[in-house]
Amino acid sequence: MTDASDDAKTQDFRPEARSPRGFADKRARDLRAEKSILEAVSAVYERYGFEALDTGAFEYADALGKFLPDSDRPNEGVFALQDDDDQWMALRYDLTAPLARFAAQNWETLPKPFRRYAFGPVWRNEKPGPGRFRQFIQCDADTVGSARPEADAEIIAMAVEGLEAAGLPRGASVLKINNRKLLNGLLTGAGATSEGQKLAVLRAVDKLDRLGVEGVRLLLGEGRLDDSGDFTKGAGLAGKAIDSVLDFVQAGVGGRSATLNNIAKVVAGSAEGDEGLEELAKIDAALTSLGVADDQAIIDPSIVRGLEYYTGTVFEAELLLSTTDEKGNKVTFGSIGGGGRYDDLVARFTGQPVPATGFSFGVSRLAAALRAAGREPTSAARGPVVIINFDQAHMGEYFAVAGQLRAAGIPAEVYLGTSGMRPQMKYADRRLSPAAIMLGGDEIAAGTVTIKDLDLGRELAAGVADNAAWKAERPGQQTIPRGDLVAAVKKIIGG
């Protein structure tokens, strides 16, 4: 039995307004920027003949590959729940595992190769941090059912074109390409046969940008003591093998053809290495035919992106632009997308090898990179035209004007608060409205309307010295016949 004080505590309870960690709220600016990217990239993918596909947010937990449950509750890395049939389901971790499941489930009826693109939210049950979210939007394009290196080349060319369409002009990013068979062949020749040792080599090479050649040399050998005193055990390679690996990862000098010649000198004689070289040579030829130049896509042997997951060619998109945060501090984005060939993923379901290759990038991350580089789409900061509300008696006229603008495809709203004119103008400015419409009794009687060009006002206000003169001149304000309203507003917004 509860007493009156317990009931009072329950009634007085006020939950704290807070977002779960790793889940971001997005306003119009962010949503429009992401929408602009998705529309531009989707148009590129469809020009290449890729079909749109949307799979559900949930997948059965055992379909998520490396995130298979290893306990009673499979919530390690994913958000999982148990269905009413006692099967565990999890929110999709990426867009690739759902594609593999879909392809295996529908293989007999799909056109082969199956070329699809997809975008949507993915969820990761990981510790959030700066720029690291538990929910974010990915955009993928994949070809399933073709083992030809030209399929990889087309994905790379499409990624180059897609990133440019999204707002990164030529020279703002580069696709870096490698092939795991090259390093596998090199390591086999060097005597590194165990998967653990190979993985240690990959992790060492992945630190080349941060630790430099000598730091990587230590990690390839016995290990490295860092500045904090922590010791990282090395891959245990011998001196000559270490030199071969370092020669390999530094072979990316010059164009694609020159780099292939440099790599051949290091891995020559290895059957797997020669196979990787042949694949990269075919990719280079196809990229050249597709018009992708050396400054847009390069071969970089130091790229080891998930080589324990990929089965052949890998590629990574790197941002080359200088980027700063809102305070003007320099920030580094580095990789903004990547992918490669994963020929074993569909086989998990079918038992039969099905070749596949694809590219993925984080939409929110790319939008943030564009903003940090000062290249955010201008449409991302545009609000509706606001009709100022002078008098409740004229509300019908205000809604008629709003309807007239909306019918012409112009976003518009009538101010429905209770403030006076000055706060309404501040409201329109805060909404980043291109224009405000003023319709008082005199205008209604005369069949006219007054328009204030807020975009022009913001532009001119930056150079104002005399505030009184500014108010007297009323810059960007005009009174016109009501029939000319739509044309005048379209001129302001550039339509």
TrEMBL record:
InterPro entries: aa-tRNA-synth_II, aa-tRNA-synth_II/BPL/LPL, Anticodon-bd, Anticodon-bd_dom_sf, His-tRNA-ligase, HisRS-like_core, HisRS/HisZ, HisRS_anticodon
Top EC class of this enzyme: ligase
This protein's UniProt keywords: Aminoacyl-tRNA synthetase, ATP-binding, Cytoplasm, Ligase, Nucleotide-binding, Protein biosynthesis
Annotated positions binding L-histidine: 94-96, 124, 138, 142, 305, 309-310
Name of the protein: Histidine--tRNA ligase
Underlying gene: hisS
Subcellular location, record wording: Cytoplasm
Subunit composition and interactions: Homodimer.
Main subcellular location of this protein, as a coarse class: cytoplasm
Gene3D superfamilies given in the database record: Anticodon-binding domain, Bira Bifunctional Protein, Domain 2
UniProt keyword annotation of Lipoprotein present: no
Keyword hit for Ligase: yes
UniProt-annotated stretches for the region Disordered: 1-26
Molecular function (Gene Ontology), one example: ATP binding
HAMAP family per UniProt: His_tRNA_synth
Catalytic reaction annotation: tRNA(His) + L-histidine + ATP = L-histidyl-tRNA(His) + AMP + diphosphate + H(+)
GO biological process: histidyl-tRNA aminoacylation
One cellular component (GO) term of this entry: cytoplasm
EC number(s) per entry: 6.1.1.21
Family per similarity comment: Belongs to the class-II aminoacyl-tRNA synthetase family.
Domain Aminoacyl-transfer RNA synthetases class-II family profile: 37-384
